[in-house]
Design goal:
Chain lengths: 114, 116
């Protein structure tokens, strides 16, 4: 069994300040973990993924995430928020090897203010 | 940029009409998925396919049906639309590398359906 919990449904930051979107997971096996971003009226786009290689994963648009097995976390961070980062972010867990079962978090809406 | 396309992007129809949402991908992916997403809400898997002639129901019960006659095409059909079907429908396919599934999903831009 696997599950994913996004701890914040809404996060608001000022432009230029750091972003932290939290994600905790549970999985019976070694998981693959993903972060996707969804801009309004668009599909989801992959930001980054962890598949049992380096625990610190760098993605597009300056985002990165660190896999912490001891804390069962995969938090998404960015040093400096940009207005264009305002979107919905989804944390996703799947069994290693890209199994059919993908579990989505409920999403975190990121708002970036001037 | 992912090569997966959904049409129509927006559709407003009356109750009782039959509709088909189209989804096509040119990446040769075997696994494809349909998700339903209400505004500001999580995604719910309604259908998936392992490949040609394979279709399975997802976690969320849906009155829609799907077919997979060709690898690149995975249409979703509602025989008689109702207001409760109003939602956004997202199609996706799973990436492969060296013949193995990567777990990464490529999404279309979605079809927003409104049933009056």
């Amino acid at each position: 069994a696997q599950s994913v919990t996004q701890l914040d449904s809404h996060v608001s930051v000022s432009e230029g300040t750091p972003v932290l979107l939290r994600c905790n997971y549970s999985s019976s096996y070694s998981p693959s973990l993903f972060w996707y971003v969804q801009h309004p009226n668009k599909g989801l786009q992959l930001l980054l993924k962890y598949t049992s290689a380096a625990t610190l994963v760098k993605g597009i648009n300056g985002f990165e995430a660190e896999f912490k097995k001891s804390e069962t976390s995969f938090h998404l961070t960015k040093p400096s928020a940009h207005m264009s980062d305002a979107a919905e972010y989804f944390c996703v867990v799947s069994l290693t090897g890209g199994g059919n079962k993908l579990t989505f978090g409920t999403g975190t809406q990121l708002k970036v203010e001037l | 940029e992912a090569d997966i396309y959904q049409t129509p992007r927006y559709l407003v129809i009356g109750t009782g009409k039959k509709i088909t949402l189209e989804c096509s991908q040119t990446m040769g992916h075997d696994k494809m998925y349909w998700y339903q997403q209400d505004p500001g809400m999580e995604l719910h898997l309604i259908h998936y396919s392992y490949g040609v002639n394979s279709t399975e129901k997802g976690d969320l019960s849906s009155e829609s049906t799907v077919s997979r006659i060709r690898t690149e095409h995975f249409p979703l059909t509602l025989e008689s639309a109702r207001p409760s079907h109003t939602s956004q429908y997202l199609c996706a396919s799973m990436g492969t590398s060296g013949g193995l599934n990567t777990g990464e999903l490529f999404f279309g831009e979605g079809s927003r359906l409104t049933v009056l």
